[in-house]
């Protein structure tokens, strides 16, 4: 195996111009590790922020970015008992979080952040940090799950209990948002989707949005959301932006409502008025992906519900820079790179 | 209003022969009560057991049986604030259970049991013991909800958290079972339905059963259920029968599995072996209908999920004895009596 | 009974000067109501804010303020089944919240706010809006429970699950804070108390504070709290102030930490940085008293744990203005008015 | 290190006569393993059942029994990050259960059962299967925790939520029972202890039992428990015996009560009547020790609450057969073997 060539995209510094294709040896798995041949890698907005240098300023180079990949197990360490050669696996992004509460020091073992990422032909994963891919999904589809789908799933299903008929406001139509839309539909929630594009909103409707709001034409979208819910407010909002947007999210909430902060695309500050917050018993919770057991439960659910991830565009391994540029355009769903 | 005639079916003793049609005055609602004009009444197996004298041996006569009815509010007491005339309502069967834990002494305020039942043109309900009917359901459909649907909902959604992809074994194809089947489907559970009739199993399949087992041709249905789940066992079983059947249910369970005891059609004893029970961390829970808040949540879910109750047969007000006889035949879904 | 005189303190406008003693007839209880002879009334800071006109600007006069009182049932309506004459009861402040989620429109039925308050010899309570007082407490002690104790209890025990050994930061030494300190101790939590007074901190220590911080001499008390927890941060903070103080509270939190907002003595805005909030999976929850079932559970706990409320000072019925002035001084524990 | 001698007690067949002292080489830890020098080992009743051959009939010999030991880390594998040499550790009995749900195939990795046990001078533990011992406990005290304390903790605190003032019936005065008694006291539960010995009941009282029942003089102890709770019944029963005893436990339960099955000393069958079970919404749950996170939380609680395990008797390493015989006498608390 060691005679094979292992292609990677490596950061040698910040900026797209410092992302370079390299070739080296295929790594060897340790006793409890898996050697995985990567088939497809999906991108998240945070990958762009890491490459740009805005998210992890003290990154050590060279560094292989990205966290989400589907691969096939091609070799296993001698003590491995959870997997065998030939299985299709996905990496568990927060590698040392099996279940329950997160590990005490979180970012010690995170794929594509404190650990090396997935933009390589071969990667090594701990056997405790991988899950089986859902059999019904293609390689490209399965590659989209580790961050985007698990974040949506964790916010909707693990951190709370979805109650059919309740309303859920979903911001935008990126990867996490469309997974949230699909899960919400499956659970009988009433999803309200916001976007600045009527065309995207129309596609969201076709995917099952109960209501849509164009926040460009309706900048007071919190008011619009209240109107859509007969003045009661929305039961749950998935916050993707921060700043003033998050403040509006709080205004849009019903009594006993919940704001799950799962992304920051804008201002990193949030300010709000405490009195209605207290009177209405509002909960705000920060979330960041999820644990391995939740990932397994989600994959089981994806099979049972026959869900298919929404893919915006697929790029070849040579087109990684183009794929990253495409990410800035606000895709509708996920961007995936195939390794072939 | 008091000049109107109020028709009822009243028990003057045990047995179908002592169930008699009577006419009296329309009752007056108290300050916090609703006068409800009944439109449709659904039957439950326990109504038959009450009429036969097997469930409540010390019942005081005369007694109007049944618990489940859809009606229209025709008058309200002067302090009523939760409802207004013209609304379609359903009675909350355990009348003094608004939310959370049940009231200390349960059967003090139960419709059709410690309280008078619903087989009358007019009934009086406390305003705290009623909920709005789902607008999308007809009168006949809505009348089926108070016991059968709420029991299934409470066991699947309130007492535990449905995890899509998990398996659920449902016994039979009566009212509760078919509601459980519909809810299970909506939540992405994998329902396995048992019956002694291939024809009913075929209909269950059409309603979304993932697998079916004919317990007549496969008396070791617990073994059959294990085989269908690759030897793992079923995650949740809804027990409707008791006795040896319940013992089989426990054998069919996976580790961390749950047995919800929601009905007794057979032997009232249950015996099982403790060692595997302990090793596999099994939970057995007895359940009995549910609280008003759960009823409200369920109705909201029925709207959002566009569920339609399965009606076996509708009878006229004069056909109550025939309807009760039909109940013994093992209907597929609910039996309803219309008041007109 | 109607020949008796019923003394009250009534607001005829905002400001202490418009709080007047009046006498009228003893009220009659309705069919499901209790007539309660008040023995002791405790004050909360919000009573001062209501009297000053800062909390409910559109209050309708005349209005009897305050919410917390211990009284004896002296008559019951003819349909009352939950209480009998002679029992010592406390009013459930959010009167229509029996259990589970709060009622849809919260402030419709709140004692001393949307409903008339307790500063009268006699008050009328719905039988669903009262609980038995703990037998081991005196009238004065029991009168302190309805808001202060229940708010602390709900934040520590009902909205979350206390884990012995975890740290809890409690702000100040007012009524809610000292109940929180006593409950925290009982559950094996490690309470850290903040105050501007070394003398009060010493008394807090004697009541069981694990650590204390004087925020006057240590304005960076969030840093001090981190230091006391070996850099890990505090697991739970009870926020009483708002504004910059709440921001510091968030800084003091450990990963997976919780901020319960249960009071506002200062700035009503809260602003914080989202990124660490998300990474550390922080939860912020607004809370406002609690439901009747929680009140019953708390009273049972107070008995079992043999807790005694901390009383700062007791005033006579004629001294209500003095008692309200004393409230501004930052008492150590509760202020109570006896009706005799 | 490999020149050192490693003493063990090994089973070469079933029966006490086949338990033999042997000496071999000190084992080497793998890359993610700890070499632990054992200081104290505690016994559980199931150790006796394993040695007698009644619990695991297909055990492979030679086999080192027992599961609970306190030891010091004397060497670590090169990839170990959670522990360092010199720390005092306890083994996590169900080794591959870090948190949340149990692993799919439970008994694959259980200390002293599917894995080799602890009756050796040195043992090797995976770094994921160990926790730090509470600093305030001596070696002998800490050795008692892994099964007895964690079983009691899990049943009282993890699988449910202790509500102060609720009643808990504890059967007997063995290791698990006395831990349950101490935890119950700490949480404000009202523990009722049963035993056949008035002398042991008197000691249980001194440890904080609220009430005691001698089941020899009061064979209808379920009735006695009901009487002690004003006819309401007990909220939670910890079942240690099985068979008829478990049936009595169910009779002793209040509505919404819980029976945690955590031990089997007698008949392994349980039978009960379903109707009251269903009406009263009873829960029966089988439990078997607990996960590592619960172990860590418990140790933190033991520190915060300053709890001290009750030790019945300490034996020397040469006295293992005597210690096992003593186990049959029904000790009051734990039996421990010191390795020196």
UniProtKB/TrEMBL annotation, chains A, B, C, D:
PANTHER family: PTHR45033, ZINC-TYPE ALCOHOL DEHYDROGENASE-LIKE PROTEIN C1773.06C (PTHR45033:SF2)
Protein name in the entry: NAD(P)-dependent alcohol dehydrogenase
SMART domains linked to this entry: PKS_ER
SUPFAM superfamilies in UniProt: GroES-like, NAD(P)-binding Rossmann-fold domains
One Pfam family in the UniProt entry: ADH_N
Gene3D superfamilies: Medium-chain alcohol dehydrogenases, catalytic domain (3.90.180.10), NAD(P)-binding Rossmann-like Domain (3.40.50.720)
Species whose genome carries this gene: Mesorhizobium caraganae
InterPro entries, per database record: ADH-like_C, ADH-like_N, ER, GroES-like_sf, NAD(P)-bd_dom_sf, Zinc_ADH-like
Enoyl reductase (ER) domain boundaries: 15-337
């Amino acid at each position: 195996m060691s005679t094979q060539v292992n292609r990677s995209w490596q950061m040698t510094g910040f900026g797209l111009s410092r992302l370079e294709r390299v070739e080296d040896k295929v790594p060897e798995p340790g006793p409890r590790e898996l050697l995985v041949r990567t088939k497809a890698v999906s991108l998240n907005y945070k990958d762009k922020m890491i490459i740009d240098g805005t998210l992890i300023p003290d990154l050590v180079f060279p560094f292989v970015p990205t966290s989400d990949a589907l691969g096939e197990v091609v070799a296993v360490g001698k003590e491995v008992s959870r997997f065998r050669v030939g299985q299709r696996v996905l990496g568990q992004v927060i590698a040392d979080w099996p279940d329950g509460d997160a590990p005490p020091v979180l970012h010690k073992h995170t794929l594509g952040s404190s650990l090396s990422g997935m933009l390589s032909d071969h990667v090594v994963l701990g056997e405790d940090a991988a899950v089986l891919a859902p059999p019904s999904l293609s390689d490209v589809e399965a590659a989209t799950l580790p961050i985007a789908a698990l974040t949506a799933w964790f916010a909707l299903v693990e951190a709370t209990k979805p109650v059919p008929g309740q309303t859920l406001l979903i911001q935008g139509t990126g990867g996490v948002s469309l997974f949230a839309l699909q899960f919400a539909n499956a659970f009988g929630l009433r999803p309200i989707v916001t976007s600045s594009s009527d065309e995207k909103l129309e596609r969201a409707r076709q995917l099952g949005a109960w209501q849509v709001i164009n926040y460009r034409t309706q900048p007071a979208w919190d008011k619009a959301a209240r109107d859509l819910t007969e003045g009661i407010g929305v039961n749950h909002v998935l916050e993707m932006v921060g700043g003033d947007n998050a403040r509006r999210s709080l205004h849009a909430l019903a009594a006993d409502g919940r704001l799950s902060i799962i992304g920051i695309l804008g201002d990193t500050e949030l300010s709000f008025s405490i009195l209605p917050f207290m009177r209405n018993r509002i909960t705000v919770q920060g979330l960041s992906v999820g644990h391995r057991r939740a990932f397994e439960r989600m994959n089981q659910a994806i099979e049972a519900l026959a869900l298919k991830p929404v893919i915006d565009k697929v790029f070849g391994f040579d087109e990684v820079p183009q794929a990253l540029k495409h990410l800035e355009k606000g895709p509708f769903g996920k961007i995936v790179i195939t390794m072939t």
